[in-house]
Fold this sequence. Notes:
Protein name: UDP-N-acetylglucosamine 1-carboxyvinyltransferase
Keywords: Cell cycle, Cell division, Cell shape, Cell wall biogenesis/degradation, Cytoplasm, Peptidoglycan synthesis, Pyruvate, Transferase
InterPro entries: Enolpyruvate_Tfrase_dom, Enolpyruvate_Tfrase_sf, MurA_subfamily, RNA3'P_cycl/enolpyr_Trfase_a/b, UDP_GlcNAc_COvinyl_MurA
Radius of gyration: 22 Å
CATH class of the largest domain: Alpha Beta
Pathway: Cell wall biogenesis; peptidoglycan biosynthesis
Family: Belongs to the EPSP synthase family. MurA subfamily.
Amino acid sequence: MDQYIIKGGKMLTGSVEIGGAKNASLAIIAAAIMTDETVIIENLPDVEDVNVLLQAIQGIGAVVERVDRHCVKINGSTISSVSVDYEYIKKIRASYYLLGALLGKYKMAQVALPGGCNIGSRPIDQHIKGFKALGAEVTIEHGMILAKAGTLQGKHIYMDVVSVGATINIMLAAVMAEGITDIENAAKEPHVVDVANMLNSMGANIKGAGTDVIRVNGVSRLHGTTYSVIPDQIEAGTFMFVAAVTRGDITVKNVIPKHLEAITSKLLEIGCTVEEYDDSVRVKGSESIVCTHVKTLPYPGFPTDMQPQISVALAMAKGTSTITESIFENRFKYVDELRRMGASIKVEGNTAIIDGVNQFTGAQVSAPDLRAGAALVLAGLAAQGLTLVEDIRFIQRGYEDFDGKLRALGAQIEEVSSEKDVQKFKLKVG
């Protein structure tokens, strides 16, 4: 099994390039099959989730051509099936975007119930409510979601809860529906806006993305486009916290600083210095991090996907901090692993109470999910001694060349797959 081995305690400095947003890329790949013309997607991250979804659309007949590591050409004119194979889909949650895309284009879709990280209940009832409102029949049989419609008709849809996935999925289904669809209480995340911009570049008529009411005026067809994915705010935020936990000085490049405001605000609160430029941010860690209180919220609030990373910083802060998780109920599964490294964290319901300690110590830990896995790497970088992080396949689902980017900042980290590799690393780092 592949693992990361880390020798911590080193201040990391330098600059890092951020890739395209994973969460935007997955919806944009689904949108690309909605036209029979060729779509070119640029700035795609080379991560497991993206590659699995590309395999899934190839599996139903789409033509996928890699132009280079971060650019792909997709042509959906050769799609021969609207049933997406379970083998691909059980690996990633965002496979459900194929439901909206196929239903919107072919008025029929059959997709296996999605997998992904087990960070809590993420029901798809809002997706189903939206599809039904547009006129589709939706049933779940043998682990598959089947949606079909004679025609799709625009409707006013009120979302009971703010859901990024449901907002995007309803938008995909509605772009070629007849008439106007209003999605009220819509998610405002940057990747919702990115998907709307991409669909508009294909000839869709979507207004209001980024606000809580999105209006989709149905069009009869979509055409080809070339589109570049926005930078990944969570990858950027993760490296911003690398600077905080290692007391380093890191310039995070190829970002949209506006998307990072909630993260920047918390870094300033705990005592770090943040300088914003047009497309980069520079974060300088503090010798002494101070405690604060965090509540995860939909955008523009503090992202749930950054909650484990800020926990690592607060576990080394002076005083007592609290983190309230309002999005996913299973998001604290990494806490036991951090305790093994010396953190003092108590979880009560959806709140973690964190008493700062002076130092982490290296330990053998296991990544329970994608963002928690990244957080454990951050803890290893800050710890004294050696840390071994297992189950790094979760991390590789959403971070491209994570260990390589960290090494470029001066980290002592390697991917290892055997005891021999571990011994070689130990000899190298002394």
